[in-house]
Amino acid sequence: MCRCNLVFALSVPLRLTFPAILGIKTSAWNWINFPNLKFQIQCSEMDQNYDAAYMLRAIELSELAYKSGKGLPIGCVITKNGKIIGEGHNEVFQRMNPTAHAEMVAIEKACGQTESVQLSGCELYTTVEPCPMCLAAIYWAKIDKVYYANTSSQVEPFGFDDSFIFDELRKNAAERQIGYLHVTEPTAFHVIEKWKDADDAAAYPWDEKGI
Ligand SMILES: [Zn+2]
């Protein structure tokens, strides 16, 4: 566990208990290596904008998830301009959908609320460090910042192990456990070409929404 994570893991319970007393705010970055990229998740260690109330709500949702039998104990809240615009918890078992992670559910709700597929200007609070799928979704949604409580290494002994996916991403496609093969099929590319030439609104719905 890096120093940043250790300090944060120790500081969260304190700040959740005494948020009014602990008003000290600094920031830190937790750097993660991704295949050929170096990107950053903001670690939320005493961040200027961090609001413990939103993390408390995410924790509340994480408890609701397993007590209701709907999913694993992970909760997520998305905020914009000081308001919650989307929240959720893991719904993998409720939906019978392995992609229904708390972050995915919250992103879906926030996008529905804002009628946009971009969540720039938003911050995401989650009770567990996002998995590779949710991390990618966070980037697709253009969320500004991520605050997470439990680290991957903290929850890995409980079966939340996503390190093998990060390992897979570092491999060449041909070396991955799941067969990942390129096939030659020109018709598939023709659809892309036809879409590029299409001028009807149905082909470009985001233009109408001003996205
Ligand atoms: Zn996930």
What can you tell me about this protein's structure?
With 211 residues, this protein is an alpha+beta fold. 41% of the residues lie in helices and 18% in strands. The protein has 9 helices and 6 strands. A hairpin with a 2-residue loop joins strand 1 and strand 2. The model is unreliable at 1-41 (pLDDT under 50). Bound molecules: zinc ion. Residues 101, 103, 130-131, 133-134 line the site of zinc ion (ZN). Zinc ion binds at residues 101, 103, 130-131, 133-134.
**How many helices in DSSP terms?**
9
Strand order of the largest sheet: 4-3-5-6
Number of strands: 6
Q: Distance N terminus to C terminus?
A: 40 Å
Radius of gyration equals 19 Å
What average pLDDT do the residues reach? 82
Catalogue the ligands. zinc ion
Biggest pleated-sheet summary: 4 strands, mixed
